[in-house]
Design goal:
Length: 337
Amino acid sequence: MNQFVPDVQFELIAIKNLVSNQNYQRNLSMQHIQRMAANFDVYQINPVKVSRRDGQNLVMNGQHTIETVTLVSGTRDTPVWCMIYNGLQYQTEADIFASQQKYVKGLSPYEVFMAYIEADSDEHIIIRSIVESYGLTLAPRRESGAICAITTMEYIFRRHGFHVLDRTLRLCVIAWEGDPASLSANMINGVSRLVVAFGDTLKDDSFREKVGSFTPRDISRTARERRSGSLGYAEAMLTEYNKRRKDGLHMSRLYYTGRPREMSERKNPQMIFRRRSNWMNNETNVDKYSPLDELSGKALRIAAFCRSTITEDPPNIIQHLYETMSTFHKTGLPSAL
């Protein structure tokens, strides 16, 4: 039976005592390390594979892990769990590194999504609730009344918020009644582009009557002739929507990467705060749809907290918000938030 059990031992070893410069390894990616550090989770740290040879602890796999832990902890004295192989030759180490991912089955977006549901992730529970509110389900593959474009829905929700995803699915349902072809990634993304670009000027009834009169396959065929990806789908749908309309929506709106007013404001955040200060002065609006809807619920609660702690009259909302956020950055969020 021992032939099925690797001859290894586990030890806690300080990062400074690990050597990671073998020629068979990948070059370090600082972008990847910074991304891992920004989303650091101690439960996601795997044991580092180490070959103990010639008196050295040679890292076979896990160089990005140890550099991430170093970045987060601020010192190379931090220990990490290591799975140690003894007596390996250099060629065997290289073969282990090259073969380690060969037969690993990756998780599909659906499998990851459902795991987050089991973990009670608010974001994923909300997305599922939106889907089910229209009589649809989530599925790993295309079928009637089911959405398998999981990554697309996550992107729309994170980028544009609850209301855009909700209206996007509503338009898809009222136009094509759950046709599997209407729930593809490009179709959903294309409709969301229209919702983001035109908002309430895009009328649901007109969309159902004009765009819904064409099958998703017709739209897909037209889209491929115009442009690749979801932008081609958005153009095709907008073209049908505008037919025989005197007040047609302008195609150019589809090509904005952000709201025109706020593109310049990104360099000067105070412009955004000044324009929105009237909204923030009314605490009762925090739970309603607002220009701040794209922010997370936690950010909205922070805004309300800032307003509730202002004692001066009239309030300097901009200065107080900066001071409060600075304090949160140093001390963490209050338990009430």
